[in-house]
Design goal:
single chain; mainly alpha; 0% strand
Length: 64
Protein backbone atom coordinates (compact mmCIF):
# COMPACT_ATOMS: atom_id res chain seq x y z
CA UNK A 1 0.00 0.00 0.00
CA UNK A 2 1.44 3.37 -0.93
CA UNK A 3 2.21 5.68 1.98
CA UNK A 4 -0.21 8.34 0.72
CA UNK A 5 -3.09 5.88 0.82
CA UNK A 6 -2.10 4.59 4.25
CA UNK A 7 -2.12 8.12 5.66
CA UNK A 8 -5.44 8.92 3.99
CA UNK A 9 -7.02 5.68 5.21
CA UNK A 10 -5.73 6.25 8.75
CA UNK A 11 -7.97 9.32 8.87
CA UNK A 12 -11.08 7.31 8.05
CA UNK A 13 -13.39 5.59 10.48
CA UNK A 14 -15.13 2.24 10.33
CA UNK A 15 -15.33 0.81 6.83
CA UNK A 16 -13.43 3.82 5.49
CA UNK A 17 -16.20 6.29 6.31
CA UNK A 18 -15.61 9.85 7.44
CA UNK A 19 -16.26 9.95 11.22
CA UNK A 20 -17.75 13.46 11.11
CA UNK A 21 -20.16 12.58 8.35
CA UNK A 22 -21.11 9.32 10.07
CA UNK A 23 -21.82 11.07 13.38
CA UNK A 24 -23.94 13.70 11.63
CA UNK A 25 -25.85 11.07 9.64
CA UNK A 26 -26.54 8.98 12.74
CA UNK A 27 -27.75 12.01 14.68
CA UNK A 28 -30.01 13.05 11.79
CA UNK A 29 -31.48 9.54 11.63
CA UNK A 30 -32.06 9.41 15.40
CA UNK A 31 -33.73 12.83 15.36
CA UNK A 32 -35.67 12.08 12.17
CA UNK A 33 -37.12 8.79 10.97
CA UNK A 34 -35.92 6.86 14.04
CA UNK A 35 -36.91 9.47 16.63
CA UNK A 36 -38.18 7.60 19.70
CA UNK A 37 -37.40 4.17 18.22
CA UNK A 38 -34.71 3.38 20.78
CA UNK A 39 -34.72 3.75 24.55
CA UNK A 40 -30.93 4.00 24.55
CA UNK A 41 -28.20 4.22 21.92
CA UNK A 42 -24.63 3.21 22.79
CA UNK A 43 -21.64 3.76 20.54
CA UNK A 44 -18.61 1.49 20.94
CA UNK A 45 -15.79 3.55 19.45
CA UNK A 46 -12.17 2.60 19.88
CA UNK A 47 -9.94 5.62 19.43
CA UNK A 48 -6.33 5.53 20.56
CA UNK A 49 -5.38 8.74 18.77
CA UNK A 50 -4.32 11.73 20.87
CA UNK A 51 -6.59 14.06 18.92
CA UNK A 52 -9.63 11.74 19.23
CA UNK A 53 -10.14 11.69 15.47
CA UNK A 54 -12.84 9.00 15.65
CA UNK A 55 -14.45 9.69 19.02
CA UNK A 56 -14.35 13.48 18.72
CA UNK A 57 -16.94 13.84 15.96
CA UNK A 58 -19.44 11.73 17.93
CA UNK A 59 -18.73 13.68 21.10
CA UNK A 60 -19.30 16.90 19.16
CA UNK A 61 -22.46 15.67 17.44
CA UNK A 62 -24.06 14.27 20.57
CA UNK A 63 -22.59 16.60 23.21
CA UNK A 64 -21.25 13.79 25.34
Amino acid sequence: MPLERAVRDARRGAFGNDPGRTAADVRAALEGPFDGAFAEVVFAITDWSNERRYLGPFRDAFGA
